[in-house]
Write a structure and sequence with these properties.
Radius of gyration: 47 Å
Strand order of the largest sheet: 5-11-10-7-8
Strand content: 25-35%
Shape: rod-shaped
Low-confidence stretches: 102-123
Helix content: 25-40%
Structural class: alpha+beta
CATH class of the largest domain: Mainly Beta
CATH architecture of the largest domain: Sandwich
Distance between the termini: 89 Å
Number of domains: 3
Number of strands: 11
Length: 254
């Protein structure tokens, strides 16, 4: 710009009758000015090109992010995730790293997606199904029990009410109930209570009268054994032989 101002001044001097040296200087400055103008034009062209490239890149990047967000929303919808408020979220490129020693499943293509860590299955005591004992061979002509069960109470007819297979630590009492058949006076029944296959309590009761087709019961409380959470079984025996089908149940925390 300074060259241009100098050139204008010399032009005025030449117009007023300048010397040959002044004319040579004016010619040199004119050539320098043309070179500077060309450089300015070239610089302006490069700046415009860079600006245009930057705008095109930003437009392409914005479109890419929009497509990626739509893909993520579609994936979340398939997974059943509520996406009603996702429209207010600005997409951010993140790299998900699976936790050590865990398998991962990546959903989505390159440049983004959702990484789901394989969940760890938690097993509660209540979810564990007790392994049933083999059904004993029962002589139906001898004293035996049918319709065996466990319950939280019994009715006026001595039969079970509130039959269930799950109790908790605060249960006041657990009844073992069955229908007695062919009981003669002096029939003794032994009730064995097992936790995880190990006997925790055993007791016997003898009836001094005949029973046939009526309910009998025996109950335990936490005074007989601690109601520790776990899998339990109650078995029925008489004279060392099984007389009824074992009943399995669980005790859980409240």
């Amino acid at each position: 710009m300074r060259v241009l101002l100098t050139l204008m001044c010399l032009s005025l001097l030449c117009a007023c009758g300048g010397s040959p040296n002044q004319e040579a200087t004016l010619t040199l400055l004119n050539m320098t000015a043309e070179t500077e103008i060309a450089q300015v034009r070239q610089t302006a062209t490069l700046g415009a090109d860079r600006m245009r490239i930057t705008v095109e890149y930003l437009q392409t990047r914005a479109a890419f992010e929009e497509d990626r967000r739509d893909s993520i929303l579609s994936t979340l919808d398939v997974l059943g995730v509520d996406t009603s408020g996702v429209s207010l979220i600005t997409p951010v490129i993140l790299t998900a790293t699976p936790a050590p020693n865990q398998d991962s499943i990546t959903i989505g293509g390159s440049g983004g997606g959702i990484t789901r860590i394989a969940p760890t299955q938690l097993i509660r005591t209540a979810d564990i199904t007790p392994t049933p004992l083999p059904l004993p061979t029962i002589d139906l002509n001898a004293p035996n029990l049918t319709e065996t069960s466990v319950s939280i109470s019994v009715g006026g007819n001595d039969c079970a009410t509130g039959i269930t297979a799950q109790f908790n630590e605060t249960t006041p009492m657990i009844y073992a109930v069955g229908t007695a058949n062919n009981f003669v006076p002096g029939t003794t029944v032994t009730f064995n209570w097992l936790r995880e296959g190990a006997t925790v309590f055993s007791d016997s009761f003898t009836w001094d009268f005949a029973i046939d087709g009526r309910c009998i019961w025996y109950f335990v409380t936490s005074d007989e054994f601690v109601f520790t959470p776990g899998n339990y079984t109650v078995t029925f025996e008489s004279n060392g032989l099984p007389i009824g089908t074992p009943v399995t149940f669980t005790i859980t925390s409240p």
